[in-house]
Amino acid sequence: MLANQETERLLGRIGQMLAADPFYPIENTLLQAGVDPEMISPSIYKDGGDYVMYRRPDLDRWSDVLLELWHAQEGPARWSEIEYFFRDGRFEVAYVYPDDPGRSEDMMERREQALRRYYGDKPVRYPPWEDDAPSYTL
């Protein structure tokens, strides 16, 4: 399969995975993910009207498809982040490269910038940590 056909297949699969959320519709959904062979950091956001809801991704489900997409790239330049936004029945994809001008070094700052681009100044609601979630004291 050609690389761009494989990319299209994987992007379609990502859309199906985002649409499978039983609690929030896919419209105005953002997947923002940092990807490299050593680390996957996906975040999923859903439009809740006057706020944005963070949906905790299942890393077991998302790691394979994001790594496959990363490996399907052609050429020497490799993107390090993807922004996949579903709006008006279609998806838009933006790839972020490590050497993009103006790219912040701070991952959380880049995430906040992406949220502002797609949702404006809507507040983001994060769910509480699960009781069995790991915690670390630094």
Please give a handful of descriptors for the protein shown.
138 residues, alpha+beta, 6-stranded mixed beta sheet
A few lines on this structure:
The protein is α+β, with helices and mostly antiparallel strands. Helices cover 31% and strands 27% of the residues. It has one domain (3-125): Murine Class I Major Histocompatibility Complex, H2-DB, Chain A, domain 1.
CATH classification class: Alpha Beta
CATH architecture: 2-Layer Sandwich
The overall pLDDT, averaged over residues, is 89
Shape: globular
Strand residue content: 25-35%
State the separation between the terminal residues, measured CA to CA: 47 Å
Gyration radius, in Å? 15 Å
Helix and strand sequence:
HEEEHEEHE
CATH fold topology: Murine Class I Major Histocompatibility Complex, H2-DB, Chain A, domain 1
- Main-sheet strand order equals 5-4-1-2-3-6
Spans of at least 5 consecutive residues with low confidence: none
Number of helices: 3
